[in-house]
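Notes from hallway chat w/ T.B., transcribed later so I don't forget. T.B. wanted the structure written out for a chain they're using in a teaching module, and asked if we could keep both sequence and structure tokens in one place. Agreed to drop them here.
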Amino acid sequence: QVQLVESGGGLVQPGGSLRLSCAASGFTFSMYPMSWYRQAPGKAREWLASVSSMGGTGSVADSVKGRFTISRDNAKNTVYLQLSSLKPEDTAVYFCRARGAYDYWGQGTQVTVSS
């Protein structure tokens, strides 16, 4: 059974940081490029960052460049999104996605940025 399980979300103050994790199982994680998206209430889902199957620096959306960093650990079947300098407008549900031979999504983790 394919699973993508996000974790690490929560309530954080403006200017704070979080590290989101997405643990994968049920497919060959190391063969899939991985991405992070987010969706705020009333808004479309927004692509944030992607990393190739082999890792590396990845690519990041201009809207969050310099604040968000994507990485992966194929030995742990996990992809990460480091969020820093968080702003209230970063409040959203954050999703990971595996897109290769098939397309898999996680269920999301809530990030709320508020004082």
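Follow-up for T.B.: The chain has a mean pLDDT of 97. Might be a good example for the class.
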